[in-house]
Amino acid sequence: MKPITDILSRFILVGRVAVSLLSGCAPVQRPRVIGPIATPQTFIVRTAGYSVHKRPIDIYIAGSGSETILILSTIHGNEQAGVALSRKLMDRLRQRQELLEKYRLLIIPVANPDGVAQNSRYNANGIDLNRNFPAANRQNSETFGHFPLSEPETRVLYNLINDYRPVRIISIHQPLKCIDYDGPAEPLARRMVMYCDLPVKKLGAQPGSFGAYVGQTLAIPIITMELERADDRLTADQLWQRYGLALMAAITYPEHPY
Description:
Distance between the termini: 85 Å
Number of strands: 7
Oligomer: single chain
CATH superfamily: Zn peptidases
Order of helices and strands: HEEEHHEHHEEHHEH
Strand content: 15-25%
Mean pLDDT: 87
Largest sheet: 7 strands, mixed
Shape: globular
CATH architecture: 3-Layer(aba) Sandwich
CATH class: Alpha Beta
Number of domains: 1
Number of helices: 8
Radius of gyration: 25 Å
Helix content: 25-40%
């Protein structure tokens, strides 16, 4: 008869094997992945905040470079050509891995989702978001807000700038048909007009505008890219044919976009 210690050792060994086999059949709890992963061609979408009516304000992030560039559209909800144009830009950037290794791109196709839903310049509170920033030339009013950053949409943009520190910003508007600029952005504006039919035109910083706050208060180069009113009727491909290279030039500056 075998010693009792030998029998116990074999029993313990069998038990360990059984536990190991059962563990291999159980679902594996994988850690939740936060932030960009793997391929730089892929945009990660995050909800940066919510509008007055709780619609999400989504930001699309790609790239691993040291320079961050912010591109946004529809801060005025009735200027919607920029939505299709910015989404076409993301399609093209997925094919330009070398750019996504050099830059980090932040793209907000819809900065004023309530305004887009209502086809209105204003947000759901009737505020012109592009006059709601804490610029030195700010004016408080019923339309501009009784105090700066009174609106959730403008607070989203304010926080993103503080968090990501972009080196330049492009805001897509309509219908003034020009490349406007604030802050130290005139050379960038001159480069962009080489690739589209829009002229450089200094419109002047409007009271409490995004351009005044970013360009003058923060001294970050910012372009207000004013498309034509009729561009709402163009397809994404037609918009890209008109303005795509100019947008790419804004990203690759001071290099050319090719």
